[in-house]
Amino acid sequence: MYGRVIGVSVVGVRGHLVVVEAHIGRGLPSLTLTGLPGAPVQDARDRIRPAVESAGLEWPLRRVVVNLSPGNLRKEGPGLDLPVAIGVLAASAQVPARRLPRYAFAGELSLKGTLVPTPGVLSVAMAASRAGLDGVVVPSANAAEAALVEGLEVVGVPSLAEVVGFFRGAWRPQAPVDAAPSEDGSRHAVDFSEVRGQAQARRALEVAAAGGHNVLLVGSPGAGKTMLARRLATILPALSRQEALEVTQLHSVAGLLEGGALVAERPFRSPHHSVSAAALLGGGSTFLRPGEVSLAHHGVLFLDEMTEFRRDAIEGLRQPLEDGRVIVSRMTGSAEFPARVTLVGAANPCPCGFSGDPSRRCDCLEHRVQAYRQKLSGPLLDRIDLQLAVPRLSKQELLGEGPSEPSVRMRERVEEARERQRRRYAGTDYPCNAQLPGPLARREARITPRARDLLAQAVDRLGLTGRGFDRALKVARTIADLAGDDGVDADHVAEALSYRMSVAEGALARAG
Amino acid sequence: MPADRAGGPWPTWPAGFASGTADRSAAIVLAALAGLTPRRLLPVANEGHSAEACLALVGEGELGSDEDRRLAGSLDPTELATSLTRCGARFVTCDDPEYPPQLLTIHDPPFAVFLRGGGLPEQAAAVAVVGARRCTDLGRELARGIARGLGLAGIAVVSGAARGIDAAGHEGALGSGTPTVAVLGCGIDVAYPAGSRELLRRILHGGSVVSEYPPGVPARPFRFPARNRIVAGLCRATVVIEGAAGSGSLITGEHALEFGREVYAVPGAVNNPLAEVPLALIRDGAGMIRGPDDLLSDLGLDAALTPPPDLSLAERAALDALVGPTLPEHVARELHVGLADALTLLMALELRGLVRSVGGRFESTIAARAASGPAR
Fold it and tell me: Which residue, A155, A176, B98, B153, could crosslink A147 as a Cys pair with Cβ 3.0–4.6 Å?
């Protein structure tokens, strides 16, 4: 009286195969789970028997022991309901065991025996494919998602009865709907053509997209910082299939996938400033969930009111901005989540928000403004290449503006600039200018003597720091890439310098 | 000291009010009584009472409040003198040769001041530079430039050591080589605001710090208007740069007009809240100045003119396109160039100190005015 099926436990975003063994022996009717089940798996114990009985199958009224191996891996997630149930049915000979080892099972059961949509199915399918299995058995709601993995048979089942029917040869699944092929990102709900005015900010965001730079927008309330940030995702290059799969996987694990199709758009995440470090970076006490920074993987993470975020949350962003991933360590184990984002921060220029606005009076004392700006973490600012002021436009200034350039046109230029960078950095680990370390950036910039003079002047006149120097250089490199120029000339440097807002260096320059 | 004390239309201190040793030590106690203002003491002094007699009246309860009487009884003149020496200050009464005579021609002149550092300048060699504490970058630049111009012409800049325009004025003067004078609205040894300690230290390096109040008196809102009358009273002219309605700079300007001293103000746009005080003063007869050059020529001083910078045609056009704070795209449109080119031009101008960026817009600095057109 023994059955054996394969389930998958998802740790972080990675699926790990779990062998589910079931044994039916003599003793009082009971179900025991062994092999380090996590709390959600323990929880399944009382759910499985009603599910089996509702499906018109028989629960063995004897002592049932289910073991999950490997024993050193903590098993997490509700997806193990289905393999446990099938294991018991196999042990009680209600399911033919012959084809069982060729499939991985995942899915959460309801008391009626139906399978409910389950997070992390894409990770399950990837694990099954990696292990060389023939297919996966998953809730039909998740079938499209699992079908994103090529060369894998996907059996989408509405309930437990159909699973049994499938292995008895009495039921066949519908051919899974082919995952909608990734359209070329033109389905964004917003577009840059809707932005009136703000030419400098639009240009700066184009530069940011072209070089992969992070951006800080400083401006009065109502200047349009959020509106601009939201549109940055629309001019980033289209997601490659590999990137789209990574994003889909993360969203699947977080249970955010709608309709199960491939995520074709670059994500835009905008957590509130009260967000905890765990919610921003990933974690949780039992089940390790990806944080906002991972949900924004390959997209835009927008931090509005950046000065108001909790210090520990903000400081924790340094690792993902540097490495493109987050490693979350907890007592129960550690998990790695990819998190390569373009960070867009927004802040007011001063506590009242109207410093530098010609039509409103700023009521802040100078030292309060300084203190406010110092709330922006220095190490984080060092990772933000473009820092610019976004003015609140007056009615007259807005009236003079015609329709702006649509996102599509901006994206074409961005993709060309990215292509130049890919060619230049072929054979290195750095896909774009922003990720280049300082010394390499200085070597690769191919800077003309005139441009070098200008930068030296900026060090004197504007109080540019060493890091500020490197940042301006990288931005100038991107501007040259957008212009299609091989070398960085004085013009490119001058424009780059106009995107260094006085948040950090300017304050120093004024004091000097 | 000076026999003729009928300088102004207001009552002033009779000669000999605080000349002898006994009167001096009485005066130092009187100066420590916060409640006993010059306004209340002056009529009594002009009835023929010396400082010693006034202090006796306080002791008898005839003058001042009960609080003053209690305090006067507990204060020891020797101890007060020692505490003055400790903070490097000296006590200067209206009968001392060091007392600035121009103060006696204002209303409610102090009968004595506390002084640190060098002596006070003559009226003809002192100009006040005052304005908003919460000022703009433009205001700061103006204050610095005007103070520097005054200093280079050998004129001492007098101000209140507050944040904003005051501090910028002192800083501009510090670079010029002429001593600058800070008038405090708190005790002579108190650094208010806290951040002014370093500024005061630099001012004292050659310049002087003056206050009506003895050591230890904290800053209080009512003391600043009182301080402003001394700022205006020390100087031949007062320059007001930026001030919102109801601010202290208006009081200083009005004091100066009242004392018959000259007042100059830098105008701003009528909808700019910080231009309210300057514009109101100009309407009341203050001289309108656009920067240091105007002021120096109005005062009949040799202007140390800065040579106009050398500009390319495109740079000049970009500068001319800046009408107040201007968006870069407007400059681009005006010059028929792309935004990136406009930003490049503006940045080159900023590096030469002719343009500054303010919250995403660009404006020309006063240094640029010399460069922008034939009319200066």
Answer: A176
Q: Is the pLDDT of residue A429 over 90?
A: no
The pLDDT value given to residue A332? 66
Q: Are residues B286 and B338 in the same domain?
A: no
Asked if residue B168 belongs to a domain, the reply is yes
Residues B295-348 pLDDT 10s: 998 998 865 555 566 788 888 889 888 888 899 999 999 899 988 889 988 988
Segment A338-378, tens digit of pLDDT: 999 999 999 988 888 888 777 777 778 777 888 888 888 77
Please check whether residues B207 and B260 belong to one and the same domain.
Answer: yes
CB contact at 8 A, A287 and A169: no
Chain A residues with CB-CB distance to B352 below 8 A: 461
**A215, A426, B228, B232, B245 from B276: Cα distances, Å:** 37, 61, 18, 19, 6
The CA distance from A34 to A68, in Å, is 6
List residues bridging with A16 in a β-sheet. A9
Residue B1: predicted pLDDT: 37
pLDDT at site A214: 94
Q: What is the CA radius of gyration of chain A?
A: 27
Written as one string, the DSSP assignment of B185-202 is: SS-TT--SSGGGHHHHHH
* B279 and B139 assigned to the same domain: yes
A381 and A242 co-located in one domain? yes
A234 and A286: one domain? yes
Boundary-marking domain end, from A383, A404, A425:
A404
Strands, E, within A352-446: which ranges?
386-390
Query: How confident is the model over B33-56, as pLDDT tens digits?
Result: 877 888 888 888 888 888 888 888
In which band, very low, low, confident or very high, does the pLDDT at A466 lie, cut at 50, 70 and 90? confident
Complex-level ipTM beyond the 0.95 threshold? no
Interface with chain A: mutation pick from B272, B337, B358, B365, highest number of A CBs within 10 Å = B358
Residue B139 lies in a domain: yes
* Chain B residues in contact with A510 (beta carbon < 8 A): 137
Does some domain include residue B77?
Answer: yes
Write b or e for each residue in A35-66: b if 16 or more Cβ atoms lie within 10 A of its Cβ, otherwise e. bbbbebbeebbebbbebbebbebebbebebbb
First-last CA distance in chain B: 47
CA distances from A13 to A71, A240, A248, A270, B330 (A): 20, 19, 10, 21, 49
Put simply, whether B332 touches A (Cβ < 8 Å) is yes
Cβ–Cβ contact B343 with A under 8 A? yes
Contact B150, B173 (CB under 8 A): yes
Residue A175 lies in a domain: no
SS3 B131: strand
Chain A hits for B244, Cβ within 8 Å: 361
pLDDT in the model for residue A263: 85
Q: Which are the contacts of A154, defined by CB distance < 8 A and separation ≥ 6? A: A125, A135, A136, A138, A143, A146, A147, A173, A176
How far is residue A191's CA from residue A501's CA, in Å, rounded to a whole number? 25
B344 vs A358: CB contact, 8 Å cut-off?
no
Residue-wise pLDDT for B228-262, tens only, equals 999 999 999 999 999 998 888 999 999 999 999 99
Q: Which residue of A has its CA nearest to B243?
A: A361
**Distance between terminal CA atoms of chain A?**
83
State how far residue B39 is from chain A, nearest Cα, in angstroms.
33
Q: Does A423 touch chain B (CB under 8 A)?
A: no
- C-alpha–C-alpha distance, residues B16 and A405, integer Å: 82
Residues A329 and A453 in one domain: no
Angle between the N-to-C axes of helices B66-74 and B51-60, in degrees from 0 to 180, rounded to the nearest 10: 120
Asked whether A228 and A390 are in contact (CB, 8 A), the reply is yes
pLDDT value at residue A394: 84
Q: Which amino acid is at A394?
A: S
Confidence of residue A506 (pLDDT cuts 50, 70, 90): very low
Same domain, yes or no: A214 and A104: no
